Amino acid sequence: MANSKIEEAKRILKNADRMIHVTFPVIGENRLFVKILEEIGKSMDMMIKAVFENENVKTYSEKNLNFDVFSRFSSKYGIDPKELDELKRLLEMVERHKKSEMEFSRKDKLVMMSEGLSLETISLERLKFHMSLSKDMLKRAENTLSKSVI
Fold first, then answer.
1. Is this model's pTM higher than 0.85 or not?
2. pLDDT, tens digit, for every residue of 1-39?
3. Domain count of the chain?
4. 32: alpha, beta or left? (left if phi > 0; alpha if psi -120 to 50)
5. In a domain, 43, yes or no
6. DSSP sequence for 63-126
7. Is residue 78 in a domain?
8. Where residue 21 sits, what CATH number does that domain have?
């Protein structure tokens, strides 16, 4: 069952990758960044659920709690502390987007305005970085999960 979650995570990540490398260059609309960000986040959520399933751990409705529990297992799945920090940043950015009061395009970036009028930008380069990191983490998690099934 954990493998089906990994397959779903890979499918979602593949779609996000296609949006970055095919759809965005054709459309050129920065608002697509939000969808890409959400898809990368969804894929990583699915990876976390697969790990939880493999470790027989309950999934919580609170994402921060899920992440804290996942961080205990992350090294077993080949995810180092720096990658874990970046994953946390990614997932927090997805949550801030959901609570964002306003979004607008500025040059080659999408700007989100959150509570307290703080600004956060999403660029194509940042999305590519998170995509690459997510692919690597997902591959390592998949390898560890496949070894634990054998």
1. yes
2. 678 999 999 999 999 999 999 999 999 888 899 999 999
3. 1
4. alpha
5. yes
6. HHHHHHHHHHHGGGGT--HHHHHHHHHHHHHHHHHHH-SEEEEETTEEEEE-GGG-EEEEEHHH
7. yes
8. 1.20.120.330
